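Translate sequence into structure tokens.
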Amino acid sequence: MALHPDRLFPVEASARAIARRLYGAVATLPILSPHGHTDPRWYADDEPFPDPATLFVKPDHYVFRMLYSQGVSLEALGVSRLDGREVATDGRAIWRLLAEHWPLFRATPTRLWFEQSLADIFGIEERLSPASADRIYDAVAARLQEPEFRPRALFRRFNIEAIATTDSALDDLAAHDRIRASGWGGRVVPTYRPDAVVDPDFAGFTDNVARFVRAHGQDAVTWSGYLDAHRAKRAFFKERGATATDHGHPTARTADLPPNEAEALFARVAAGGASAADAELFRAQMLTEMARMSLEDGLVMQLHPGSVRNHNPHLLATFGRDMGADIPGPTDYVRALKPLLDRFGNERGLTLILFTLDETAYGRELAPLAGHYPALRLGPPWWFFDSPEGMMRFREIATETAGFYNTVGFNDDTRAYLSIPARHDVARRIDCAYLARLVAEHRLDEDEAHEVAHDLAYRLAKRAYKL
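Result follows.
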């Protein structure tokens, strides 16, 4: 299972040689992770990770959704049930179950990340199988108890310059405060995720809104008080290092209602029982309000619509949200974003980064939009498309219209901490492979390709996310 040094590089010899040179210049650049989901408590408390299964299997929907698709129950993988009923707790047994089903991950990005993490971090180059499962488990478990494998030490080892967590608008950011108070030098910043108080379909929405508004000194739940609460909480996040907001809406729809209509809409959704039409219109209006606030406070705005979330009602009822049952759906950006773009699209002081789960939108909508509006930037492939093939398709489709400099480099979008270096390495290899082909085809000079490779690996993310 030794990692081949030319993995993901072009097969053709001259292009492969160019890719090697390009990659050699960017392989060890610092990692910027501006759109991630690791737990800030890891860095605040710096405690050892408990066991290999808890680290690699239980939190990673890429892993357990594949196993579930082949009949493995989430209970057997140790995923907690909402009703508190018993699930597997033996990490070794969970690891053996993963090993038994490891052939399912052939040719998937999950295998790339997993095997590179084992090799680079733990020095393990034996392929996972039922025969090797216990040896690998014991080796990883032993290393996790060493000081060099605690979260802060790994942060330094991974050469992470900055990492963003994703935090609810209702979060008190206590873990971030503990990080700052500790005097540790690692840069871990929060990201403002207001879905719990912006999406009327979010569980507990009306109570969330009331709590959110009253926490910011408002006795009554009013439209103006609600907007002021957002401004105050955004400032609270920004004081703790936040540079961005994050919005996971079902669609990209935006709206720009007259003030009286927006106020009346808020009153309806805040009272509970909003219709589906009102819920969608409110989310649409709030994207425009968030853009307005971003112009005021400078926070970068991220929008990643298009996921039909919690598609499996049984899993939602049994285990809750985010259990691997989110499925991509088609997304209209051209018409959906127009109200927001009519108001703010020409503002150079606004940065709105667009992601998609609908690959067909890259060439038809997103690249042309980002290639025109000053406020727009195109986010990298993510989630279902953060794979070698997905990344290469993205470069081929988006570059011809948006170029390189209307994109924002790479971000890893993961809760799986140990996979972060591997994910960035895969992205750097694919970008170097793409650039090598351009050089080999005499469409780009090699000195230009070196500059672009550095930009894609580091500078574009640093600039776009103000890091």
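Note: The first helix runs from residue 13 to 26.
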